[in-house]
């Protein structure tokens, strides 16, 4: 690997370290806010302080009132949104099968689905039944896309870890460590290094 490439990799590693530290700071802020909102998480379960759920229930908007306030165009487009459950569920099934079959063959650690798909907003007592359904649906679909992105990112890191020539706006977390576009000399060794790295994720 050339010195400029090594320097660039070192700079990228430093920036990634700074990003990780910023994520930790965000998590600390979230933890402080959690205390202010009077709940904690114990063994994966949400535990509210005394009286909080009763207060939340008092703030819930009744379903009939919620529907009366809802704009007609939202009601008309709702079936289009919910029809996506079929392709999303199929995507979930096929991507999960793909990684279950292929990742062991490649030596890539499997992505843990529950780390990405969180469905917990239905525990909020200030949401009515329809709001809870909407939140569960959004939590599933957005979590699924993050889960699929991680599986696809690990696959790309294994098979074709080359950056694109032009900037990519939404990059998965493995992309910044990819080989430079046009670095023919470093390609073979770089792919091997990437495969070793992705196997240690």
Descriptive report:
The chain is mainly α. The chain has seven helices and two strands. The radius of gyration is 22 Å and the shape is elongated. It has two domains: 1-36; 43-199, no CATH class. It has a two-stranded antiparallel sheet.
SSE arrangement, N to C? HEEHHHHHH
Q: Which class do the helix and strand fractions yield?
A: mainly alpha
Global shape: elongated
Structural domains: how many: 2
Strand order of the largest sheet: 1-2
Q: CA-to-CA gap between the ends?
A: 22 Å
Give the tally of β-strands. Answer: 2
In terms of per-residue confidence, which ranges show pLDDT below 50 for 5 or more consecutive residues? none
The main pleated sheet reads as: 2 strands, antiparallel
Share in helix: 55-70%
Number of helices in the DSSP assignment = 7
Indicate the radius of gyration in whole angstroms: 22 Å
Proportion of residues in extended strands: under 5%
Q: Topology, please?
A:
Blueprint: H1 3-36, E1 39-42, E2 45-48, H2 52-59, H3 63-69, H4 72-83, H5 85-106, H6 129-159, H7 187-199
Antiparallel strand pairs: 1-2
Helix pairs in contact: 5-6, 6-7
Produce a short descriptive summary.
By secondary structure, the protein is mainly alpha-helical.
Keywords summarizing the entry:
201 residues; mainly alpha; 2 domains; two-stranded antiparallel sheet; 7 helices; 4% strand; elongated
